[in-house]
What does this fold into?
Amino acid sequence: MSRDAKSKTKIDIDARYRSLLQKAVRRGNIDLVFTISALLESLGQMGKNWFTSRTAIITFEECWPLGAKLKFNKKFHSKVAAIINVTQSTKVRDATGLGYMAFALSEGDRSVLGGTEDDRHIKILSKAIERPTDFWKWVDSKKKAEQQSFIIKNAIKYRHAGSPQDRAVLQAAAYLAFTDNLPEIKLLEPADQIFPYWIAFDTHTREGNRVLHDIARDLHIPLPHLEWISFYFEGAKTNAEIPSKWWERQCQWRFRRLGLPMEEAHLIWEPAKPQVIEALAEESRNLHTEFYKWKLSHLKQIESLKKQVEIFNEHIDEVQTDQLDLF
It folds into this structure.
């Protein structure tokens, strides 16, 4: 890690790296995900522990059916194999959409309800959030096929990980496992476009918050509008995704709650985007340089990690499910 990176606080490092990792996964940038993973491994046990729980959460958030394939053992590369699997796969975010709306309802926001039959599922998950122990016992008792069973088992394993919204997503994935059909997940070619490092500076980072606040003020845009549309158009962008009704409904609900017509959002973002990019140019360049220098200094470590993942995937069917409890 660079000297500058070491001088950062733990919170700053986690915020930038956490954001960069998930954006790289969403956009299918396998090489960058390997580099971030190797860097986090170099941070010692703290980085490894964070990466393990975050890998599980990202899997359920970005492609919930792949929750069935979280076959971890003691080795760090087993977790990297899982997140690379998500990176190179089509994304399907129904669990995220349903989980976030259910969480909002559990907090008293009834605007998520649209007066349709589908409201029933949001209400069920909202109650599940309020009574998690009863919910996990209920889903665990359901009869289901092997793949659905693995999704639920892994969701149960990580039910205490992450934020309350993350935990709601895990509950939604478990619920969808036995109430919905599992979509077919396809592998994609690696993304070869230049990665826009500025998207790492979102509302979860100090730099992103500052820039969005300043530009919202200068352009006379309500800050919540700019925060949401920057995420909608850039932060949430994927390499490819399967249409997800719950993700789409969640996006529509957020636009509606802000009083912002969905079809007009681009009229705000188009003039704001270049200003955001310019305002974050130095931070983006520094982050890119930091990762590039680290990569050049640790090429053998990164290549070793890639090889370990390749070997692990070749023998993944031999990984016993009881190994899930070993690390």
Residues 1-13, 321-327 have pLDDT under 50 and may be disordered. Residues 152 and 178 are 9 Å apart (CA to CA). The radius of gyration is 20 Å.
